[in-house]
Amino acid sequence: MVRRDPRGAAAAGLALLIVGCADAPAVPPSARPVALGADACAALRGFTGRGVRVVAATAVTPSPVWSSPTQAAYNGVASKPFCRVEGVIQGRVGFELWLPAAQAWSGRLLGAGVGGDAGIYNYADLGRGVDAGFAAVTTDSGHKAADAHWMLDRAAVDDYTHRAQHLTNQAARALVEAYYGRPAAHAYFLGCSGGGRQGLKEVQDYPGDYDGVVVGAPGPNMPPLSARMMWLGLRDQRDPAGALNDADWSLVAKAAVAACDRDDGLADGLVANPPTCRFDPAVLACSTGTVGACLTPAKLATVRITYAPLRDEAGKPIDSGVFPGVRTRPGPPSPLLRAMFADGAHRDSSWDAGTFTIAGDLALAQRRLAKLWTNKTDLSAFRARGGKLLIYQGWLDPSVIAQQSLEYYAGLEARTGGGRETRSFARLMMAPGLYHCLGGTGPDRFGGSATPEPIGDGDHDALSAMVAWVEQGRAPERIVASQVEDGQVTRQRPLCVWPSQAVHIGGDPNKAESFRCAAPGEGKAS
């Protein structure tokens, strides 16, 4: 795997035309761009066009690296010169576009998604992108993180749910063409969590924006997932005796792995296929004479309820439950959940979370936040123009449960004919031991969004694998994921195209070459 130190255009007045309508394409610039040189970046300063205003354009020369402004997450570095363009679209959607030197530009555009409730920029992937020769762009999704109640603004909600990424893509395309004198030959998107949802929305609603889209933990059914987390958090508050702390959840997770680790024939601390895991948390019950950590009856009841399908007040199932071994984040509901239901659904910042009901509040969210769902499986327009989609998902993700990605992909298969037909343009890779986007008990470094490593080769890097698929027709059959400790790779494992999984064929279980990707029924691990 290639490693990097983890610390480590156009003339003024160029007639760049970006139409104001979110659903309309950008009009190509009509003026001839100036020759690229030392003043090309500065020439963009103060530019205004229809809907787009460049606030600042700064030539950056790293020495040896340049660090982005510090924010809550997604901080990044760049090691190669670039033009940093800061702008705003329609007076509210902020964006940054980093343009590598002309001789270093690969002809590619990279869109970088942002998770959570956004409001910040994905500097991490901008730096990785520009160092690899991409013109890279990111958006704050139409609001700033400092605005705690942005969901009360309907325009901001529309920007966040679908519009901002599309407008940013169109602005970036036009600025790229203006700066380099030619359009981007290919455009790619990379995001995880909320950034994954953004990429999936692009594929569904704006299929012409990107040629290749790599999304992790995209949460196609975000509001039902939010309802699950809200309800469980409120339950813990109402039943403190049954609330598990962090140590309790670690105990549950370890016991589930111990129960199912050998199901794949290899004892390595990873459960290769959690859907087949049979784990009864009752083995952790406290009893007379129990030595060591255990769970009280109230806490065991919480574990069972957490893993079971969520049902509304009338008994209607909302989801299919959670796989054994997934641990949750203890404590009260996240402020993000409250904002979604209070400001977004109820449009009332003083809404009392204690009145939350699964059925009622989900129905309200369906009416007022419909665009938060990204579960459309009709990707025919994206597929028809040659678009490619790669979804990656951690089996042990506590924030976006694995069932969401599995069920969405199953829906794609049902619509497109399944098997080879679906894999011709869309593929899913499941990562054993992976938590939310990064971290966990298994290999988590494979070029996903905001990973510390630079963009590398297609065997170890998801974005590079996507480039090879789009531009060379070489579909990824597997990507090697690495586990890194103290800067050293300690374990590698191939991520396989679902439903295949890595099967041990002998040799060092910490090396990728000791595994092959096999479909269910093709053989067991050694």
Q: Report mean pLDDT, rounded to a whole number.
A: 91
Q: Strand percentage, roughly?
A: 15-25%
Give the low-confidence spans: 1-36
Based on DSSP secondary structure assignment, what is the total number of beta strands? 16
Q: Number of helical segments?
A: 12
* Global Rg: 24 Å
Please provide a written account of the structure:
By secondary structure, this protein is of the alpha/beta class. 29% of the residues lie in helices and 17% in strands. The longest helix has 27 residues, at 154-180. The radius of gyration is 24 Å and the shape is globular. The model is unreliable at 1-36 (pLDDT under 50).
Question: How is this fold's topology laid out?
Answer:
Blueprint: E1 48-49, E2 52-60, E3 66-67, E4 77-78, E5 82-89, E6 93-100, E7 108-112, H1 123-131, E8 135-139, H2 154-180, E9 186-192, H3 194-205, E10 212-216, H4 222-238, H5 246-260, H6 297-307, H7 335-346, H8 358-368, H9 380-384, E11 388-394, H10 402-416, H11 419-423, E12 426-431, H12 462-472, E13 478-485, E14 488-496, E15 501-504, E16 515-518
Parallel strand pairs: 7-8, 7-9, 9-10, 10-11, 11-12
Antiparallel strand pairs: 1-2, 2-5, 3-4, 5-6, 6-8, 13-14, 15-16
Helix pairs in contact: 2-3, 4-8, 7-8
